[in-house]
Amino acid sequence: MLQVLRDHIIEDMTAILEEWECAEVATTDPVEINEYTDEEKGLLATPVAFQLASELGRPPADIASDLAEAFRDRGPIEGIDTIETAGGYINFHIDEAFTTRTLEQILEEGSDYGVVEDTVESALFEFSSPNIAKPMHIGHLRNTVLGDVLGNVLAARGYDIVRDNHIGDWGVQFGHLLYEFEQADDTDRFEEKPIDYLLELYQRYGRQEAKLEEAGREDDVEQLRDTGREYFAALESGDAELRALWERFSEASRNRFDATYDRLDVDFDTWHGESFYVTESWTSQIREAAIDDGIAVETEDGAYVIPIYDDDLADVEDPTQADVRVAADPADSDDYETFVITKRDGTTTYGTRDLATIAYRIEQGYDELLYVVGSEQREYFQQLFAAARKLGYTDVRFTHVDYGLIDLPEGSMSTRAGRLITAEDVLDQVRENARSVVEENDPTLADETASEIAAGVALGTVRFENIAKRRTKNTTFDTEQATSLEGDTGPYVQYAATRGLNILLEADEIPAPSAVADQPFNEFDHQLAVELARYPLVLERCEERYDPAPLAQYLLDLARTFNKLYHENRVLDASQARDRRLVLVAATVEVFETAFEITGIPMLRKM
What we know:
By secondary structure, the protein is α/β, with parallel strands linked by helices. The chain has helices at residues 2-19, 48-56, 60-73, 98-109, 138-156, 172-184, 187-192, 194-214, 218-237, 240-264, 274-279, 282-292, 350-363, 378-390, 423-441, 447-465, 479-482, 490-506, 523-533, 535-545, 549-568, 578-599; strands at residues 32-33, 44-46, 80-86, 89-94, 122-126, 160-164, 297-298, 304-309, 336-342, 368-372, 397-401, 406-407, 475-476.
């Protein structure tokens, strides 16, 4: 309902500005949603008069007054009672029937409230993407949850989403690992705890390399690296023994990943790792096309690179705006960055495999390729997209959904240095904290019940905490604070939803909104109804920003507003407004459930 009002206002405003010959004035968020508690502002407002002031050479307040009159002249807007001005703003006040229509819409549409039914476009959504032979770490938690929730948001907004877990299972690091494994020759330890053992070997290699570097033994460092390169070259060339060993690494890793994804309640449609694009010859096609078409150039040491010029990167994600230099000019060697597609020994690189992945995905017919990868890879992805444009992939939209780092309060981590914060460790700690919170909140719970509730609270904590901050910001995951029932936390939101659900479970029946339209509402009732009306606009904002953080903030706002009503208003034993407040609570629980479905936060009957 609120979305319809907003769109109607924007439509009228656009028509007015065209009549005023001011249609070119840029407007960012042309209609704002105000806090309902400020009666003077109205629920909706537009600051467009401030943007028009310089062009028209008039005070914003005068422009706002004329605009408000122009709105009134165009006729009434269903749902709007009055249109007024204040300090250059035009304020739109809702009518009394707005609440009833909002509640009717929510209870009629149910889980479809805020959902776009028509398919907007097809999109391949890449997220999580851990490396094999290592446990998932805390950074993968943020990537995985962020990607899963954003995928749900886009699906709700009409995208046909395919979720791809692009496993890191190829590269020279596995040459190093295969070498270390053969040197250690301890199969029993691998069979006992395969991933822990492989991580130990990986870190052993890192320590050995670091020790040689500190001693200034550069020749020995290079020899060590060459050994790993040789093993990887043999693996990529199809060495049967190394391939069989690598497959054991992959299988053990997949089993460990599956266990973590089960705890996070995350699924994928495809699991194509980097190796798929090598073994299925997609990388060979990329290399041949780049060289044969003059897109790549050979370096002095025999590698092949695609030159990336500075002006290649402008608007490279947008197929309608991207403009790249296709043909390489070796004479301009000082003026470009090199995107390596073949190393001097003939092996592939991340870039080769990522280009091959793009080629494969485009053949599947996707309109957009989205990559959930950390902000530190921003420059790389810009170059990757530019290289893809040069190779002729000019119609697809590329989107790098970058995000900031996440750490625990005790600090950052380094896999090679041995400071690894695993995803399992974080999940275990959150589960333990959640169990303590549940037992403290209700010491009478049976052990099995407490465990079930703690599992739901822990999942809600992890999911909420990883989307609560704007995705581009760095964040610290304080597991103890995040499991609290107070503050800006997932359990706080869950607790509010459980309160609402329990009210409904105690009620005999829930009346239809139309049957209680004449029952009185006070300010707390209205505040909650307005909050419910905002939900579709919040999903729209998440889509626009490729960021679920506005949805997390919305859940906090909804929980606070509902808790305010819960403490200030009677519901089941209200003398006059019982039935209408039951309708309001039913709509609130419906929105909680719908938003929880998207965020993956469990709805709990008891906490």
